[in-house]
Amino acid sequence: MQLSERHRQYWQKNLRLTAVLLAIWFVVTYGVGYFARDLNFTFFGWPFSFWMGAQGALVVYVAIIWYYARAMNKLDEEHGVAEEA
Amino acid sequence: MAGMNPPAATGGSSRAANAAFKKQLNKVYAWYTGGFVVFVVLLAIAEQMGLSREGIGLTFLAATVLLYAGIGFMSRTSDASEYYVAGRRVPAIYNGMATGADWMSAASFIGMAGTLYLTGYSGLAFIMGWTGGYCLVALFLAPYLRKFGQFTIPDFLGARYEGNLPRTLGVVAAILCSFVYVVAQILGVGVITARLTGLPFEIGVFAGLAGILVCSFLGGMRAVTWTQVAQYIILIIAYMIPVVWLSVKQTGVPVPQAVYGYQLQKVTEAEKRIKDDPKEQEVIAIFKAKAAEFDAKLKDIPAALAAERTAAQAKLDAVRAASPLVPADVQAAEKALAAVPKDEASAKDAWAKAKKANEDRAKPLAGMPAHAQVFRGDPNGDDKAKEAFDIDRRNFLALVFCLMVGTAALPHILMRYYTTPSVKEARESVFWSLFFIFLLYFTAPALAVLVKFEVFTNLVGMPFDQLPAWIASWSKIDAALLSVADINKDGIFQLGEMKIGGDIIVLATPEIGGLPYVVSGMVAAGGLAAALSTADGLLLTIANALSHDVYYKMIDPNASTARRVTISKVLLLVVAVAAAAVAAQKPADILFLVSAAFSIAAAAFFPSLVLGVFWKRANKWGASAGILVGLSVTIFYMITTQPWLRSVFGVTAPVADYTWFDILPISAGLFGVPLGFATIIIVSLLTPAPSRETQELVEHVRYPDLNLGKA
């Protein structure tokens, strides 16, 4: 079985997208978590780090997954690997 | 692999069929939701006309369980593809809802807001951990598992890692973590049933078990999926209504998630006020004095025990000699004498416990940290404060890590992504899963703050004879959940005088907000739905691992489909009864057991699954060694550091000898996961590369449709 150049590109792009989204996930979770004590300014009534833990991070997680599904479904089409059905 | 897909999953006509199916589902569940609302309204009217509380509770219990049974009965099947993966035609949005219900257990629904109430910022580790894990599911696992397209998670390990050794290890780990988890769910079912109906706990367990079984037994994944959608709808409505009500009552805005920041500010002000209140300090001083009393007794146990016994005897003699004789006094004195510890060992035990209990309550804010305070200690304080801060932060981040990786490794969740019609829908389905989970997790911290505001500003400082009725009724149910006593005898309620368990926060919210009892019944039914749906998914995972992976793949590969499904059903029954039997023993420390399941799953599955997709060189020996090492390290750390497990396994050396980096046992996966990765990589590189067919399987999994002629 020999993969074409187009297949290889598809996989490379997938890996790059995965890495970028994972980096965002990491910063939102562990970056904010690690510096939580220093990020305690008021944000619409909440202390910022509390708000991030209770809402901000969750919104980012949902957005990451939404974007990944959209981008990958498009990438499938562009590289001819989308399912037929 | 393609032969496993039902013919309906490919070709143009199937798209139309799938669309029609989805449309029909929309109609059915719209009617269902409407029907549920009408049912609640009718019950509310019945309550006004004088239906008793037990009547409401029983009606809710019977109606919802019958409903689930009905769905289970209508979806009965013995077709393998329907039984194991619901025919692979569950639309993304419905699979999302089902995953949401599957995911949110009794711990999420009942326990989480309570944990947030008690621990403030630290509790957010659960919120972040149990949602952020879905990013890992989406990026690393769901689409690839769907493309692989078999039935179970050990299936993937067996195919990717060429053989029965990795498959067997997968089966063992899947059963271990699912069983631990299902015991906790059945326990939750028992508690709610008992409270809703007044039945004894053990009967509650088995009544709930019947509700679980009718769904999964008859129709496997198909029945479980459609029941879980129904359960999600009930649980989300039940969770939202009391919080919205409380928010309107306190702020006038019906969107609690948007406004509770300002309530949090008020809670912080109230915390300062309560800390400085001399009456609160009086209560604390009383607890301190009591703790000191027990401490003194512990210093000379024989003398203290003798003195206590003499005093109790003298008191009994005195009341017996009194005239006129007061029988109640005699009884009380006899009871007091009987309660004196029998020997020195039991005296030591009892007094040490009492000392600890009093010390725990002799703290400002009844031992709760300030709600918005991030981590204990102080990074700019003295050495001790600095260390406390570092350890607390480290443990917070470690817990988030374990919960996230565990989420992305629990077999009953990953299995759900086999049920969608395509890879594309599997990706979308992860989005819908997290979206539906997000709705509840976004709300839980708001609920905790609103309840805290209610308690801190309305309850504290109230005269005892005016306390609302829910306090009395809940303390009657179980003193461990709520006990209130006027410690300093000033007739005014102080925060320090209440001992509250996290599990009642959600269940009592309707009463705290002053809603009719029918809403309380609905919340309990929601908790039941959460526990039942998770238990269903877990039981199915265990039964499938045994029937599909052990029996069909390893013992009798020629077994007919009908036989496999029958065996799965029988095993389901056996496992369910075993789990209920364990749950009826009330094993200690359920919260720990649940988190243990996450660490076990994380260490066993995450490294081997991820490397299986992303690293072609990973081979059989690497994966097997990786699973073993990850699992053993995690379990070893738990056994040597967790108090309950230490006593079960008779570990006596001091905890400090075993603790690494001051990490708590709940986050044991922190060590197992990286070691698992490292082991797989090292052992794989030392042993031969996997066969060409296996490497082609990896390519096959990476592309939704690897049509080499087309590209």
Task: Give an overview of the whole structure.
The complex is a heterodimer of chains A (85) and B (711). Helices cover 72% and strands 5% of the residues of chain A. With 85 residues, chain A is mainly alpha-helical. Chain A has one domain. Chain A has a two-stranded antiparallel ribbon. In chain A, helix 1 (5-34) packs antiparallel against helix 2. Chain A is elongated. The mean pLDDT of chain A is 89. Chain B is built from 26 helices and 2 strands. Chain B has a domain at 588-711. Chain B has helices at 12-48, 53-74, 80-85, 92-103, 106-119, 124-148, 153-160, 164-197, 201-251, 256-276, 278-299, 301-321, 327-339, 344-361, 383-407, 411-414, 423-459, 469-477, 504-512, 517-555, 561-584, 590-614, 620-641, 643-649, 669-686, 692-702, and strands at residues 482-484, 498-500. Chain B has a two-stranded antiparallel sheet with strand order 1-2. By secondary structure, chain B is mainly alpha-helical. Residues 1-12 of chain B have low confidence and may be disordered. Helices cover 75% and strands 1% of the residues of chain B. Chains A and B meet through helix 1, strand 2 and helix 2 of A and helix 1, helix 6, helix 10, helix 15 and helix 17 of B.
